[in-house]
Amino acid sequence: MKVVKYSGSIVEFNRDKLKNSLLKSGASTEVVDDVLRAIDGQIYDGITTKKIYKLAFALLKKSSNSHALS
Fold first, then answer.
1. Comparing C-alpha atoms, which of 67, 10, 6, 7 is closest to residue 35?
2. Which residues pair with 48 in a beta bridge?
3. Handedness of CA 34, 36, 41, 47 (dihedral sign)
4. What's residue 30's pLDDT?
5. Cα–Cα distance, 48 to 50 (Å, whole number)
6. Cα distance between residue 63 and residue 52, in whole Å
7. What is the pLDDT of residues 23-46, one digit of tens each?
8. What is the enclosing helix (H) or strand (E) of 4?
9. Fewer Cβ within 10 Å of end Cβ, the chain: N or C?
10. Residue (of 11, 52, 51) closest to 3 by Cα position
């Protein structure tokens, strides 16, 4: 799947880069895997990396809020 970087260049989607960013933010491996599974169904060819990260971190925030409640 191709994604559009901020610079405008088009590259292949790299799931590992997103995973590493989420892990660096302090999320657990389990939560990161959940977010990645959710993202898989929402990304499409030509999506911007900005949109992917915005979506991923929104899901991460939602997930951490639900974990805090339990």
1. 67
2. 4
3. positive
4. 92
5. 5
6. 16
7. 999 889 999 999 999 999 899 999
8. strand 2-4
9. C
10. 11
How far is residue 6's CA from residue 49's CA, in Å, rounded to a whole number?
7
Write phi, then psi, for 11 (nearest 5 degrees).
-135, 165
Residue 27: count of CB within 10 angstroms of its CB: 22
pLDDT score at 69? 41
Single-letter amino acid, residue 36: L
Structure tokens at 30: 């389990």
pTM of the model: 0.81
Encoding tokens for residue 35?
A: 């977010």
CA 39 to chain CA centroid, nearest Å:
6
Token couple for 17: 């880069």
Beta-carbon count within 10 A of 33 CB: 13
Task: For tokens 């925030």, name the residue.
Answer: 61
Question: One-letter amino acid identity for 63?
Answer: S
